[in-house]
Amino acid sequence: MATILIVEDEIPINELIKRNLQSVGHICISAFDGWAAINELRQQAIDLVLLDIMLPEMDGYEVFQQLRGTPTIFLTARSSLTDKVKGLTLGADDYLVKPFEMLELLARVDALLRRTKKDDKGFKLDGIKIDFESRQVYLHEHPVECTPKEFDLLEVLVNNRNIALSRDKLLELAWGYDYLGDTRTVDVHIQKLRKKLNLETRIKTVYKMGYRLEV
Hints:
Blueprint: E1 3-7, H1 11-23, E2 27-31, H2 34-43, E3 48-52, H3 60-64, E4 72-76, H4 81-90, E5 94-97, H5 102-116, E6 122-125, E7 128-131, E8 136-139, E9 142-144, H6 148-159, E10 165-166, H7 167-175, H8 184-197, E11 203-206, E12 210-213
Parallel strand pairs: 1-2, 1-3, 3-4, 4-5
Antiparallel strand pairs: 6-7, 7-8, 8-9, 10-12, 11-12
């Protein structure tokens, strides 16, 4: 996956973000002020920066100007239009206002990495190979026919692997906000994916909630 630098001076928030990103396979480095962030960037290759604006000693805008094009998402309690415009005008890739849902952060991180990491177009597990760009799925090198919605659901499960997702959340992420069907649709599609891709032991049912892809 990716190496992500989390620049957030509130330790509990930094740790929460780190745990969630690590749970889906990312390598995470924490920094708690602007100077520490810059030092980390000088010492190693970073794929993406999650950058708080209100930092001690040096604010996030100042840090960003020294990132040299590293993909960046601003995380901030500042919700005014002026602050958003300033961050995006400086060249940040995205802007997320606190408090935010962790699933939204994971989705935005994934979307940004898709745009910036050209070598990160696929996923492999237990003989399954998924090519997100061509929307092709293979099992032991043989193509598996998936409907568009089956692929969308599989992609959501992969992007949020090791995270329990409710049926309502899966409907929202894979079908969209305006879908008028009920949650039984999710169950039907999950069963089809399990059968087609031999995922019976990987897609776990979370009691009275939904499903989780265990990796």
